[in-house]
Amino acid sequence: MIGDTGSTATLTIGSALNFGTDTVTLRGGDIDDGNTTNRAITAGTLNLDARNGDIGGSGNDAIDVMVNNLSLNTQSNNDAYVVSTGAVNFSAASSVGSGTLELTAGGNVTDSAGVGITTGTLELAAGSTNSVTMDSGSHNITNLGAVTAGGGFTLDNGNNSLTVTDDINTSGSNGSVVLSTGTGTYTQNNGDDITAGSGDITITADTVALEGNTGSYPLQSSGTVTLKPASAAATMSLAGSSTFDLTQAEITDIIGGTDTIVIGDTGSTATLTIGGAVSFGMDTVTLRAGSFTDGNNPARTITAGTLHLDARSDAIGTSNADGEIDVAVTNLSINTQSNNNAYVKASGAVNISENSSVGTGTLNLTTVGDLTDSDSKGITAGTLIIDAGSNVVDLDSGSHAVTNLGAVSNITTLTLG
What is d(CA 89, CA 258) in angstroms, rounded to the nearest whole number? Predict the structure, then answer.
């Protein structure tokens, strides 16, 4: 250990320092290396502790290190700037208060179990092929600035709210992006985008706010974009007012950057309310919730190319007048757990494109066009009720398992096999 907790003077790195694989703590009022890049500190574990100033500075004034393990701490919300020539692991708690922590690494960036970073703004650059995995769940980061990590970026911010204030890019090697704020709010500012190439993007937060995006699309991936609440009991809505809500404006921004969207989680026990008509264009959309309702309002139609409805603990719609979930889709699948019922009404022709099951429950399906199925895709139901609006019902995949065929009305021909 070099330096004292009471220090107010500058600790200057005057030349390259090699401590081998030792654990080293350096303390000073502030820590400076003379705005050079050739005074690297080598150690096994390095703890930098600035008592009344910054650790390094931006650009060439960052402190250069060659270490396996690192911690960075400042007092009074001062900043920390570090460049690591290789991979680095945050092995002990690091805090700059409401200041900025900026790390550039020549390898992967990780954290140890239970180790957290507290910072006003975090900025990370790990290059086009390396990854950043900060999944301890102990972090408290207020603002997430620029992040480059081609191999993927994971941040578990505990139950602390997070605002994305700059671009996140993992497209260099199509890495996935996984961000979680638990019961906290996830906010993404206008013009600050996540670009993942073919990597998936997953955002977990009980409240999500995507600020109006005027220049591009906030979530850009040719893979799957998933948004879901962290709490199983968090109520959800589309164009509504629930704890977890996505407005039509937010949905429009999302579909501009991806073709495949998942909203909700398999562990959900709460209701997803369709609060108004919502359009996902021709995207493939999976909606997961404990149950589904549209308030018995047939004007609240879900539009998509392919729609998968997945109720995890209760029914999809109700048998009340106009209680069906109204959809305008080309392809559809409907699933419930524990033999719960499903009531769905399509405004046109619809194809059952994936296996659909309500167990021994009732599936009541109304269409205003032909009802068909894809090869080898079947419906499993205790009772199947169909109203095809004077059109053809051709369910001939041979994969259906329907115990009771209930009321079948307004069809020209019926095939069920």
Answer: 33
What is the pTM for the complete model shown?
0.97
CB 62 within 8 A of CB 104: yes
Q: Residue 4 has which token pair?
A: 């004292």
Q: Which residue has the higher pLDDT, 413 or 260?
A: 260
C-alpha closest to that of 188 among 220, 158, 159: 220
**Three-class secondary structure assignment of the chain:** CECCCCCCCEEECCCCEECCCCEEEEEECEEECCCCCCCCEEEEEEEEEECCCCECCCHHHCEEEEEEEEEEEECCCCCEEEEECCCEEECCCEECCCCEEEEEECCCEEECCCCCEEEEEEEEECCCCCEEEECCCCCEEEEEEEEECCCEEEEECCCCCEEECCCEECCCCCCCEEEEEEEEEEEECCCCCEECCCCCEEEEEEEEEECCCCCCCCEECCCEEEEECCCCCCCEEECCCCCEEECHHHHHHHHHHCCEEEECCCCCCCEEEECCCEECCCCEEEEEECEEECCCCCCCCEECCEEEEEECCCCECCCCCCCCEEEECCEEEEEECCCCCEEEEECCCEEECCCEECCCCEEEEECCCCEEECCCCCEEEEEEEEEEEEEEEEECCCCCEEEEEEEEEEEEEEEEC
18: phi then psi, degrees, rounded to nearest 5: -125, 110
Please tell me the distance from the alpha carbon of residue 208 to that of residue 201, in angstroms, as a whole number. Answer: 14
Burial of 343 (0-12, 13-18, 19+ CB in 10 A): buried
- Contact criterion met (CB below 8 Å) for 377 and 402: no
Whether residue 291 contacts residue 271, with contact meaning beta carbons closer than 8 Å, is answered with: yes
Rg (CA), the chain: 27
Cα 166–chain centre separation: 16
Give the burial string for 204-220 (b: 16+ CB within 10 Å, else e).
bbbbbbbbebeeebbbb
- The mean per-residue pLDDT over the stretch 409-413 comes to 90
- Over residues 183-225, the pLDDT tens digits come to 999 999 999 999 999 999 999 999 999 987 776 899 999 999 9
**176: closest CA among 156, 158, 194?**
194
Average of per-residue pLDDT across 93-100: 98
Q: What is the pLDDT of residues 341-354, one digit of tens each?
A: 999 999 999 999 99
